[in-house]
Amino acid sequence: MNGNEAAAIELGAMRTAWCDLATRWDLGWHERRALLPAGGQDAATPPHDTERRMRLLIEVGHRIRFDDDDELRDWLRTPSELWNWYSPLEIMSGAIGDLRRFRQFVEAGIWS
């Protein structure tokens, strides 16, 4: 397997993980567009920003655990004092730096 084949396999796995995450979070079109503003998630070679944001969002998604997906979906859309009265989805839809900071909070267990 050469480097291009390996990259294509990795991209395919990332797309699958992104679709699973979008389904689990019950993301609507507008929410997907806000989280991946450069679009192109289905392109053979997505924009660099899209690929980077998808990877960060997948990392966040793997670390946030709720016993109930409905509870998770509500939490994602509920503004919190912790986030200056923005919802987690609004924070993750911000600049790449905001998404990275959110991931750091999630990694540290400071997300609820």
Features:
mainly alpha, 63% helix, 112 residues
The N- to C-terminal Cα distance equals 43 Å
Coarse shape:
globular
Structural class call reads: mainly alpha
Oligomerization state: single chain
Q: Report the average pLDDT across residues.
A: 92
Query: How many β-strand stretches?
Result: 0
Unreliable sequence segments: none
- The level of helicity is 55-70%
Provide the β-strand percentage band: under 5%
Rg, alpha carbons = 14 Å
What order do the helices and strands follow? HHHHHH
Number of helices: 6
Biggest sheet, in brief?
none
Description:
This protein is an all-alpha fold. Helix content is 63%, strand content 0%. The chain has helices at residues 3-24, 29-35, 48-63, 69-77, 88-92, 96-107.
In short:
With 112 residues, the protein is an all-alpha fold. It has helices at 3-24, 29-35, 48-63, 69-77, 88-92, 96-107.
